Every structure is written in C-alpha cells, then in structure tokens.
C-alpha cells in the first residue's frame, strides 16, 4: 500500500471514529433521558437520507454551506481568517433579491446570472473591506470581519423594514422576486433546485483552478508561505486580495442561492448563523474542496435529519450542536495526531512489523 | 442639548461599566492565553458555559457564590479541552475554537432543556446584589458610578490591576510573555513552555467563568439559550484592539460598553430607525480600530504550537494557516 | 496572467449560467397556491374523531422562551388535554428548514399543522397545495388558500389599555416600552400604547428602547436601565424570554412593569397588569373548529370581541383606576371608542 493511500485510509478511519465518538456521547445523554438511542439515530438517518423529500432537504440545506464553505476554505488556505461570512452572505442575498424584484421583463437566462453576479459583487465588496485593511494596513481581519458582520446584518434588516419592504406584510420582508429570477426545482416533493448543481460545478471548478492552474499554484504558494512566495516573485498582495474577494463572493452566492432557489423573498434573519456554520464546514472538510463538499452535505443532512428526529422522538434539536462540535474536534484531532490506524490494527496480528511501520509513518 | 446631558449623568457611566464587565473579564482572560502563545477565540463558548453552569450551580445550591464557583468549573472544562487540542494535539487553534463554541452551545442548551424542561415559567436562582462600598458610594457622581456596582465588576478591576502587575512586574509574568514571544529561547533557559501555556489557557477559563457568571448571576438570575449572544467575539476583538495588553483590552471593553450604553440612551432622544442604534457599538469599535489604533501585532509565537527541540520550523507556520 | 484571470471569470460565469440554463421554463415553481383545486373542502368534511386526528406545531423560536413560542406550546398542550388528540412539535426551525419540517409532518399523517409566526406564511403557501388533505394554519400571517388559513390578532388593542394603566400608575409622567423590533404588528401596539397613555394624561412622555432581539436578556435589562434613568417609572416589556430582564431591572429600581402576551404577575411582583394575547385560545378554538368541521376560509381575525385579547387582572391599580380601564374596554367593545388597530 503506498503512502498516500495509507494516509487516506487513516483519514477515513479517523472520521469513522469521530462519528462513533459523537454518537457515543449523544447516546449516553439519550440513555440518561430514557430515550432509545438506536431508535433516535435511525430517525436521524431516515430524516437525512430516506425518501426524496428528506434527501432533497438535506442537499438543499447543504447548498449554501458548500458554496460558503468553499470561500472560507480558500481564504483560510491563504492565511486570511475571514469570519465575516455572515455579513457577506446577507449583503449578497440582499443584492440578488433587489435585482430579482426590480428588474422586470428580463428572460430568465439573463435575469438569473445578473442576480448571481450582483450577489457575488456585494459579497465580494463586503469582504474586501477587512481584506484590504489586512493586506495593506495589517489590521487583524478576524476582528474587523466579525464587527462588519453585525453592521451588514443590521443594515439588511433595516432595508427590509424600510425602502425594500413589501407593503402590507405583517413581517418585515421584501417583495417576491420575479418569476424569471427563480431557479427551477430538480426533485419533486422538495425544494431542491438548480443551485445545488451550481454548487457541484463550482466545487469542480474550484478543484481544477486551485490544483491544476498557475493561479491556483500561486494561491497555494501564498497560503503556505507568504514571505517565501514574495521573494520568489509572486505578487502576493494581489493573490491575497483575489482570495478574500472570491471568498466573499462565494458567501454572497450562498445567500442568493437560498433566496432565488426556494425562499423567493427575503425575510429578516433569513439565514441565521449560516455565516458561522460555513466556517465549521470548511474546517471539517480540511479546507479541501472535496472535503468541503462532503462536510457540507454531512452538515445539511444532520440538520435535516435532526428536525425529523425531533418530530419522531421528541429529542431537542440542540443536541445537533453537540454532535457537530464533537465531530469537528475529533476529526481535527485525529487528522492532526496522524495516528496510523492500519499499523495499529496490523499490530494486533503481527506485533513486530507494526512497530517498524509506525516508526515509518 | 439633551444628547450632551447623557454624558453628564452618572447613570450613563455606571451602565457602561455594567455592560463592560463581562467583556472585560473575558478579554483579560484572552490576553493571558494569547500572551502565552495560544490563540483563544473560544471565549464565546467559555462565557456561555460559565453563564449556564453559574445559573445551574446557584439554582441547585441556592447560593450565588457556589454558583460563581460552578461557573468557573464549567468554563474550565471547555478551557481544558482547548488547551488539550491546541497544546497537546497541536491542532489549528481557530478551528478548535469554532468546534468548542459549537459544543458549548450544544451542551448548554441541551442540558437546559433536559434539566429544566420546556416549562414556560423560567426558574430563577439566587443572584448577587449591588455592593455599596461604605462612604465612597455616597460620593456625588463618582459614588454611584464606581462604588455601587455588583461584586464582579469590582473583581474585574482588581483582576485588571493584578494581571497588569503579574505580566509586567513579575518574573513569572515575564516567562509567560516569553512563552508567546520566543518559546524556544525560554525552553533553552530551562523553563517548561508547555506547562506555562496549559496554566494560561486554564486561567482564561476561570476568567471567562466569571464573565459568564456576571451575565446570569448579577440580577438576571436566570438562563436562556445562547445567552452570551456574541459577547465572546467582542471580547476577542477587545484583546486585539487593546494590543494584547490588559489595560488596552479593558479600555476596549469599556469603549464597547459605552457604545452600547450610549445607543440605548440615544434611542429615547433621536427618532431614527433602531437598526442604526443596534449597529452603533460595532461601528464605533470598528472605526476606533481603523482610525486610532493602527495595525496590531500580536505575540510573535501566538497560535504556533510549541514543539520542543525542533527550532522555529516553517511547518509550525503552516499549521497556523490551517490545513495540514 | 490576464488570460488566466479571464479564464477564471469565464469559468465562474459558466457555473452561474448552468443554474440558469438547466431551468425548465414553465415549471410550477411560481404557481399561486390560491388556485389549488382543494378550496372549500375543509368546510364540508363534517365532524372528525379526535382519536384519529394528529396536530403538529412548528416554531421558529424555542418553546421555553416564556413568551410567544411558549404560548403556542401551551396551546398545543391544551389541545392534547382537552380534545384528546395526538400532538407533536418542532422548535427552533430556521426559515431554510421550514418547508421540510412542514412536509415531514404532513407526510406522517398529521392533519392540522400550525406554523407559529408570520415567517411561516411563505413556506406554508408553498407546501399546502402539495397536501390537499392536510389543513395548515399560519399564526400571525395574512395568508389564505384552500387548505391554508392565516390567523391574526387585532394588533393595537392591548397596547392601548396597557398605555392607560401605565399612565395612571406613573408618578413621574414618563413611561417606557421595550419592544424587540418595529415589525408592523409590534408597531401597532407601540403606537396605541402612547395613544392610550395620552388619553389618560395628555402631557405624558412615552419613551421607546428597542433591543433588536427577542431573547437577549442582559440587553433588555440594560435597555430598561436606560429608560429608568430617563425617569420612566412604568415599563412595558414586549419581548419573549427577555421580559424577565426587564422585570429584574424594575424590581431593583422599585418601579412598575406591565406584562405582555400572558399574565406575568407570577414572574415578578413589579408587574401591575398584563396585556393578554390568548394564543392558546386561538389554538384550541382552531383545533375545535377543525374537529367540528366548521373551519372557515380566509384570514381569521382574533381580538377582544371574541376574548382572544384582553387585559389580565389589575394588581397595582386602585379600584377606580381599574374601573376606568375596564370602562374604556367596554366602550371599545361597544364601538364608542376607536382604536387604530391593524386588522
């Protein structure tokens, strides 16, 4: 078995152990409460994957997480800790909704790209503020982007309560977007729409660009060692700016995909905490596009499964946060600790050999 | 004119200190951890743990001081996890914090449901009253502002002074700062860097426990899901804003508290959409940061796991950037 | 370099285009639910056997918030106890998850599904046509379709009488109100609170401090402190969980408070009376009508005339003052007093 495959298998095993650990902790909690853990997990699984509606809901919830998670992965890879996904997502969704409502009479093949583009520009610009401050002035971007989250969300909520409010609605909400800006559904009995396909395509594109092109190479170089890449002639600042703008643009898409995909109008707090969830997704996915895809679908499935679980078992949805936290920490821990599971298991049979293998690893 | 009157009433200043107390306690904790070289964005989760376990302890033992103790134990648990992940397993410290914050939200709101059910009636626990300092609290203006606060506000001030003395006037403090600036040199000098970092991160937990207790046990006397609502992130901002010094962090926390106290008072004067008032403390902090503070440079070895006998390897930098 | 960037942009545009191009023109995504052929079926189905009926509640917030969502949960429990039907609930459902949760209940054979809040209007409009045999009720939303009913309160009624009570009790001539936000339903009560107060004392000053959240307790406590420092001596707490924060501040300052939604005198002695919104009654009434098969089409408006809103007992008012408020309430019911309500 070559080294890479071995590392891969070890990584997969660590994920399985992380899952088992999370479910063991939750199982103990449930037993304490007198709820059957096996039945609960069955309900969770059923709610996540069984049936078109549940599967569709899982993928639907995964879509913004994948899009935003990719952006976060890119910026973190480049050493910029953009925590501002929440604000970028809201502003992106706001731009798309505004264009979706106010551009009348466009054909859908023009209207939809315009809305998406608008959301990417707004999200990107909102990310550019902390990005610029970081790159040219050295301000700590985690702090500025967190502060800007609040400003962005309150601004959008203000817009929805005033100049962009649907008259007569009981809630503060925008008018409905034009039919030509709505994405079409791709799975009956659920709200799953073409934005999921778009997310898949963007994952593939991201993968190709990041690993197979010159731009990607330079982005990775900048991320691994900014100083070294500067001395080797890479225009570091430009690539860092590119990374943060793309990161914001993807967060913006994560917002607009929800409005154009199925909400069709924007309510205040339309997507609470998604901007922070995408950080978790990026990290669970090890900042790798394929990892982000899997982590996004996993978290979407967990969300969708948890609501069904509460319906069937009466277990509070809040345990989901425990599952999520334990999984992030244990995946992280195992992948960092580099435990050689294959070697460990092999050791049960051939003690001597395993010792030498562990040394190798 | 009415606007200026806000600044002439002692009430504005005492509200500022009240609002700043949890931020200040958590930010001071953050300073300790980051000065020792462990990035700590898990303040939010630790405050939440402190808030819940403080409430739980005070409710179970019917004693507010035992509540403060359990608050510290609760957030110490999370701090220990952060220390284990960051120092022992050497994972990316931002990631560890994100995981821990989520975990804290899960633990507190699930236990809250399991233990207190879904009654609409919220059970209240014993809380602490304001402590008037004899004589001083009778002083005009200064009395109500500085000497008629709840005990944890005084604790925050005392801890600020102690921490400042500790960091900059004792050899142990010097060691702690060295652990965050140049751990290799410290190691060569025969000091246990790992031990210092462990102690620092655990101390942060104790501070955050107090911060959490100051939310639930000083008059509110009850708990609710996600009660910390982002205060930990503001405290983290205060650490950076204050350039990793106790006084700076405390001032940043007070600035934010003042912004919040101000917007709540301005609401009764100017009739503008309330969203802008909500934004105000964040905007004030943002602009203060951008215009007055300049670039911040943290401890050199902050967020870089310490690896004995390996020198300042580039790989350490890589792990800081995320991924592996 | 430039070419690479161009390629990047093009690739991005391609991805965006895919979402657009795979769109089948003419799918049912925007079909107005009102055109559903099931219109009217719910009126004529006749009485149902309670043991075969399942009722579900979906909340955006937490059912232990001691306010808006707790009142729905209480309504659901009363439905189970008094009508003997099976019930279930889901709390903390984000806007993104609403359609799935509602569908899951419908598919599991729940017959009557409540969405608790204006934000359920849209998702229910989407899902309702898919399940013509299920009845959907969106509370506080003005939506209607064949099997979807919206219920709203006559927002503004309670605010008026709470304002009257506040003005009577106030000694400083300044009263305050602490709402979470300025959504139209809250705004109606905020406005009538001032009107009611001015009806008693034309010189009274009314101050508002928004908290921006339904459940940030520490923030609500501070908002109260700010109004107290302004000289207010009666505060109306208009939030969910955070009312406790307001009452704590009032107790400390030795001033009076007014409760909201439910009688909150048992939470704090500072509460002199509460504006009641019997969300629970609406739930039970709706479920009863459903069982009897007498549910009506269209948005259902609940208010003081049908006992769904009103005032609690008066704890801190003199008998004359209480009588005066009650007289005003009677005038309103008799149509002698006009209050600008929403609906």
UniProtKB/TrEMBL annotation, chain A:
<feature type="transmembrane region" description="Helical">
    <location>
        <begin position="12"/>
        <end position="35"/>
    </location>
</feature>
<dbReference type="Pfam" id="PF02653">
    <property type="entry name" value="BPD_transp_2"/>
</dbReference>
<keyword id="KW-0472">Membrane</keyword>
<feature type="transmembrane region" description="Helical">
    <location>
        <begin position="55"/>
        <end position="76"/>
    </location>
</feature>
<feature type="transmembrane region" description="Helical">
    <location>
        <begin position="88"/>
        <end position="110"/>
    </location>
</feature>
<feature type="transmembrane region" description="Helical">
    <location>
        <begin position="314"/>
        <end position="334"/>
    </location>
</feature>
<keyword id="KW-1003">Cell membrane</keyword>
<feature type="transmembrane region" description="Helical">
    <location>
        <begin position="239"/>
        <end position="258"/>
    </location>
</feature>
<feature type="transmembrane region" description="Helical">
    <location>
        <begin position="278"/>
        <end position="302"/>
    </location>
</feature>
<dbReference type="InterPro" id="IPR001851">
    <property type="entry name" value="ABC_transp_permease"/>
</dbReference>
<keyword id="KW-0812">Transmembrane</keyword>
<keyword id="KW-1133">Transmembrane helix</keyword>
<feature type="transmembrane region" description="Helical">
    <location>
        <begin position="147"/>
        <end position="164"/>
    </location>
</feature>
<feature type="transmembrane region" description="Helical">
    <location>
        <begin position="192"/>
        <end position="211"/>
    </location>
</feature>
<protein>
    <submittedName>
        <fullName>ABC transporter permease</fullName>
    </submittedName>
</protein>
TrEMBL record, chain B:
<dbReference type="InterPro" id="IPR001851">
    <property type="entry name" value="ABC_transp_permease"/>
</dbReference>
<feature type="transmembrane region" description="Helical">
    <location>
        <begin position="198"/>
        <end position="221"/>
    </location>
</feature>
<feature type="transmembrane region" description="Helical">
    <location>
        <begin position="274"/>
        <end position="296"/>
    </location>
</feature>
<feature type="transmembrane region" description="Helical">
    <location>
        <begin position="151"/>
        <end position="168"/>
    </location>
</feature>
<feature type="transmembrane region" description="Helical">
    <location>
        <begin position="97"/>
        <end position="116"/>
    </location>
</feature>
<protein>
    <submittedName>
        <fullName>ABC transporter permease</fullName>
    </submittedName>
</protein>
<dbReference type="Pfam" id="PF02653">
    <property type="entry name" value="BPD_transp_2"/>
</dbReference>
<keyword id="KW-1133">Transmembrane helix</keyword>
<keyword id="KW-0472">Membrane</keyword>
<feature type="transmembrane region" description="Helical">
    <location>
        <begin position="12"/>
        <end position="31"/>
    </location>
</feature>
<keyword id="KW-1003">Cell membrane</keyword>
<feature type="transmembrane region" description="Helical">
    <location>
        <begin position="38"/>
        <end position="58"/>
    </location>
</feature>
<keyword id="KW-0812">Transmembrane</keyword>
<feature type="transmembrane region" description="Helical">
    <location>
        <begin position="64"/>
        <end position="85"/>
    </location>
</feature>
<feature type="transmembrane region" description="Helical">
    <location>
        <begin position="233"/>
        <end position="262"/>
    </location>
</feature>
From TrEMBL, chain C:
<keyword id="KW-0472">Membrane</keyword>
<keyword id="KW-1003">Cell membrane</keyword>
<feature type="signal peptide">
    <location>
        <begin position="1"/>
        <end position="19"/>
    </location>
</feature>
<dbReference type="InterPro" id="IPR028082">
    <property type="entry name" value="Peripla_BP_I"/>
</dbReference>
<keyword id="KW-0449">Lipoprotein</keyword>
<dbReference type="InterPro" id="IPR003760">
    <property type="entry name" value="PnrA-like"/>
</dbReference>
<comment type="similarity">
    <text>Belongs to the BMP lipoprotein family.</text>
</comment>
<dbReference type="Pfam" id="PF02608">
    <property type="entry name" value="Bmp"/>
</dbReference>
<feature type="region of interest" description="Disordered">
    <location>
        <begin position="25"/>
        <end position="49"/>
    </location>
</feature>
<feature type="domain" description="ABC transporter substrate-binding protein PnrA-like">
    <location>
        <begin position="53"/>
        <end position="339"/>
    </location>
</feature>
<feature type="compositionally biased region" description="Low complexity">
    <location>
        <begin position="30"/>
        <end position="47"/>
    </location>
</feature>
<dbReference type="InterPro" id="IPR050957">
    <property type="entry name" value="BMP_lipoprotein"/>
</dbReference>
<keyword id="KW-0732">Signal</keyword>
<protein>
    <submittedName>
        <fullName>BMP family protein</fullName>
    </submittedName>
</protein>
């Amino acid at each position: 078995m070559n080294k890479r495959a071995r590392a891969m298998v070890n990584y997969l095993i660590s994920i399985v152990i992380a899952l088992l650990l999370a479910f063991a902790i939750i199982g103990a909690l449930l037993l304490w409460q007198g709820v059957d853990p096996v039945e609960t997990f069955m309900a969770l699984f059923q709610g996540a994957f069984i049936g078109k509606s549940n599967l569709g809901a899982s993928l639907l919830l995964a879509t913004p997480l994948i899009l935003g998670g990719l952006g976060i992965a890119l910026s973190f890879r480049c050493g910029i800790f953009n925590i501002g996904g929440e604000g970028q997502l809201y502003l992106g969704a706001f731009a798309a909704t505004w264009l979706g409502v106010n551009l009348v009479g466009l054909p859908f093949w023009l209207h939809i790209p315009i809305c998406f583009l608008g959301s990417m520009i707004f999200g990107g610009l909102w990310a550019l503020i902390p990005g610029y401050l970081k790159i040219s002035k050295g301000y700590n971007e985690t702090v500025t982007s967190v502060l800007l989250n609040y400003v962005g969300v309150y601004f959008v909520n203000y817009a929805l309560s005033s100049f962009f409010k649907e008259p007569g609605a009981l809630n503060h909400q925008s008018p409905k977007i034009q039919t030509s800006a709505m994405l079409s559904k791709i799975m009956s009995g659920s709200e799953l729409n073409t934005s999921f396909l778009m997310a898949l395509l963007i994952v593939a594109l991201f993968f190709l660009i990041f690993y197979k092109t010159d731009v990607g190479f330079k982005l990775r170089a900048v991320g691994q060692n900014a100083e070294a890449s500067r001395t080797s002639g890479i225009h570091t600042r430009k690539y860092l700016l590119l990374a943060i703008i793309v990161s914001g643009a993807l967060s913006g898409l994560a917002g607009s995909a929800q409005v154009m995909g199925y909400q069709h109008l924007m309510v205040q707090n339309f997507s609470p905490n998604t901007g922070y969830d995408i950080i978790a997704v990026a990290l669970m996915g090890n900042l790798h596009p394929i990892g982000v895809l899997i982590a996004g679908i996993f978290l979407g499935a967990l969300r969708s499964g948890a609501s069904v679980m509460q319906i069937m078992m009466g277990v509070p949805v809040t345990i989901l946060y425990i599952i999520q936290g334990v999984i992030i920490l244990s995946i992280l821990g195992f992948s960092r600790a580099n435990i050689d599971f294959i070697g460990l298991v092999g050791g049960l049979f051939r003690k001597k050999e395993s010792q030498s293998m562990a040394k190798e690893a | 004119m009415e606007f200026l009157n806000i600044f002439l009433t002692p009430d504005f200043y005492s509200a500022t200190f009240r609002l700043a107390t949890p931020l200040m306690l958590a930010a001071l904790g953050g300073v300790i951890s980051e000065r020792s070289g462990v990035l700590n964005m898990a303040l939010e989760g630790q405050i939440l743990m402190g808030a819940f376990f403080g409430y739980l302890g005070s409710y179970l033992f019917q004693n507010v001081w035992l509540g403060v103790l359990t608050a510290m134990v609760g957030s110490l648990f999370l701090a220990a996890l952060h220390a284990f992940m960051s120092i022992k397993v050497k994972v990316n410290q931002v990631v560890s914090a994100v995981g821990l914050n989520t975990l804290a939200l899960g633990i507190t709101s699930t236990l809250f449901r399991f233990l207190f059910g879904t009654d609409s009636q919220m059970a209240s626990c014993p809380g602490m009253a304001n402590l008037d300092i004899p004589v001083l609290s009778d002083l005009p203006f200064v009395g109500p502002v500085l000497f008629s606060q709840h005990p944890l506000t005084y604790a925050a001030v005392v801890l600020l002074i102690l921490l400042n003395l500790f960091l900059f006037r004792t050899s142990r403090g010097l060691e702690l700062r060295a652990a965050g600036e140049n751990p290799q040199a410290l190691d060569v000098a025969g000091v246990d860097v790992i031990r210092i970092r462990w102690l620092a991160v655990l101390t942060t937990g104790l501070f955050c426990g107090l911060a959490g207790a100051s939310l639930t046990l000083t008059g509110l006397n009850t708990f609710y899901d996600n009660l910390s609502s982002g205060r930990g992130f503001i405290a983290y901002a205060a650490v950076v804003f204050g350039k990793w010094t106790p006084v700076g962090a405390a001032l940043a926390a007070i600035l934010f508290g003042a912004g919040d106290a101000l917007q709540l008072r301005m609401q009764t004067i100017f009739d503008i959409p309330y969203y802008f008032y909500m934004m105000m403390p964040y905007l004030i902090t943002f602009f203060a940061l951008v215009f007055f503070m300049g670039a911040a440079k943290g401890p050199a070895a902050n967020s870089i796991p310490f690896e004995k006998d390996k020198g300042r390897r580039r790989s350490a930098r890589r792990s800081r950037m995320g991924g592996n | 370099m430039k070419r690479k960037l161009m390629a990047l942009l093009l690739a991005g545009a391609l991805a965006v285009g895919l979402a657009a191009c795979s769109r089948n023109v003419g799918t049912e995504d925007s079909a107005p639910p009102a055109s559903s052929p099931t219109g009217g079926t719910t009126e004529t189905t006749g009485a149902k056997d309670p043991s075969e009926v399942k009722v579900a509640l979906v909340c955006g917030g937490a059912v232990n918030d001691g306010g808006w969502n707790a009142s729905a949960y209480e309504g659901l429990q009363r439905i189970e106890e008094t009508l003997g039907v099976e019930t279930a609930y889901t709390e903390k459902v984000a806007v993104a998850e609403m359609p799935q949760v509602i569908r899951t209940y419908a598919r599991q054979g729940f017959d009557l599904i409540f969405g608790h809040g204006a934000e359920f209007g849209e998702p229910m409009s989407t899902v309702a046509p898919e399940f013509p045999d299920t009845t959907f009720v969106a509370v506080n939303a003005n939506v209607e379709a064949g099997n979807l009913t919206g219920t709203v309160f006559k927002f503004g009624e309670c605010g008026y009488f709470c304002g009257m009570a506040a003005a009577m009790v106030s000694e400083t001539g300044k009263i305050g109100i602490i709402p979470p936000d300025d959504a139209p339903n809250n705004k109606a009560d905020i406005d009538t609170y001032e009107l009611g107060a001015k009806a008693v004392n034309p010189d009274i000053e009314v101050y508002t401090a928004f908290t921006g959240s339904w459940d940030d307790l520490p923030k609500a406590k501070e908002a109260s402190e700010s109004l107290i420092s302004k000289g207010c001596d009666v505060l109306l707490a208009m939030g969910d969980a955070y009312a406790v924060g307001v009452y704590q501040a009032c107790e400390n300052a030795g001033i009076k408070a007014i409760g909201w939604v439910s009688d909150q005198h048992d939470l704090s002695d500072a509460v002199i009376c509460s504006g009641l919104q019997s969300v629970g009654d609406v739930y039970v009434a709706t479920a009863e009508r459903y069982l009897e098969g007498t549910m009506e089409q269209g948005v259902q408006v609940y208010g003081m005339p049908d006992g769904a809103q009103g005032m609690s007992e008066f704890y801190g008012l003199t008998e004359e003052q209480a009588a005066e408020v009650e007289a005003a309430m009677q005038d309103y019911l008799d149509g002698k007093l006009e209050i600008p309500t929403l609906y």
